[in-house]
């Protein structure tokens, strides 16, 4: 019963399920960094960084300070304010943030992105055998939380108490640690007391938890039980820091043996435990339903006025390859006028191309992008459309009416990308982004205010910050001849630290408020100084 658009899930759905996108927008290459779960060589000692392992460790360290009885902490991205603590050594947290900050927005909190990082990492590292159901809705912390990430030199009693605070009993603690330590390892640069670094080489001696660093599998348990493990937290030179040894034996070795006995059991246990881990959030947070790939979703819809009083309407429809057949299907758009009258059908059979779903098996379908365009009279205008697929993936004709009222798309208020641009300038060594937007407004006399609204972080120097809206009043430019449309323009300029988060245009009046929300800067032509 998904209805487009949905502010809570559309952006998260795009980032998670639309990898290798033909639009090449930020985030569409995220999964490629953990593709095959392979590490990136760091030096002759064989040390390497496995980004998937870093993403998973980031999600755990962020969650590990939760207090489930108090209903506080959990996945809230507070880790970004806590990286100078002794319990959080290493590059993992800032590197994970580096990957995901490009898609951080009011519709995709950093904590939702850290949860997604764990989902993608484990999905990719297990080659699609562990698909953690993903929900959105997490809320970012505005500052540091309490400390309390478990550390390897602590004793079993403190680990048991710490996991109990996070909501996991002894059995679940053993399971969660085994799942986490299935990929990656201990880095000499972060923990020289556990994994000594060769002196003066500048390299990172990394010792993996098991022999399959690039595979999310039960080897970590198998090798531990078989007593031939290389896990530095189980049999490292320093007995004090053998936390995995103490934890895996916390119940006499029962659970770790079960995990060692069956990889299927290990994988299903980890799916459950890691889902619980990423869904550990403050009590005040309400998570969305599980986000699934959406079968039919409009994308980048544009309206441009022509000189002769008509409107050129074009856009893309993203269709899952489980719904349409890239070779056979024919796609048609049925637009409706402003008054609800059916307008001539537009064919959308030309394919812009395919996006490869998720980059790893079992995550979601690939998508086919169909292009359409049509010309309508400005007097008729447009309010919505429905989509018809002939010869769909099942060989039938199917209609998509977006829950009954069609896909909303209105010429009441639209940015005109061909008349908009973005520029970059440097003043006193500070780089500024400027966004110049021209918008098409119907019956402008009905509105008392038409504003360009940019979401910007309140605190430009913090790694993450609550958002605030920076508003610019747009001014009338000219009437579009032969129509009731008027062009409005507005310019917004700020230090580039304010980012290029999608922008809104909102027209408010006594009779109504209309808006065009979350418009991507990617669609705005760039004029950058060399
Ligand atoms: C008592 C609990 C735990 C302790 C004491 C502990 C300790 C450690 C230590 C010392 C490292 C090495 C980090 C580095 O050198 O950068 C590490 C790595 C890692 N931990 Fe844990 N850990 C615990 C639980 C968990 C849990 C529950 C998870 C996730 C579910 C997890 C996921 C990871 C991952 C993926 C790595 C590899 C990071 C990389 O290769 O860059 N850990 N852990």
Describe this structure in words.
- It contains 11 helices and 23 strands.
- Mean pLDDT is 93; it is low at 42-46.
- The chain is elongated and about 85 Å long.
- The chain is an alpha+beta fold.
- Strands 14, 15, 16, 19, 20 and 23 form a 6-stranded mixed β-sheet that branches.
- The chain has helices at 10-17, 51-63, 92-100, 110-125, 156-166, 170-180, 219-225, 232-235, 243-248, 254-261, 263-278, and strands at residues 40-41, 48-49, 185-187, 206-208, 296-305, 310-320, 330-336, 346-347, 350-355, 367-377, 384-390, 398-400, 407-408, 413-415, 421-427, 430-442, 449-457, 467-473, 475-479, 485-495, 503-508, 513-519, 526-528.
- Protoporphyrin IX containing FE (HEM) binds at residues 50, 53-54, 56-57, 60, 90, 92, 150-152, 159, 176-177, 179-181, 183-187, 190-191, 233, 243, 247, 277.
- Main sheet characteristics: 6 strands, mixed
Which second-level CATH architecture of the largest domain applies?
Answer: Orthogonal Bundle
For the record, the count of structural domains works out to 3
What coarse outline follows from CA principal-axis ratios? elongated
Number of beta strands: 23
Helix content: 10-25%
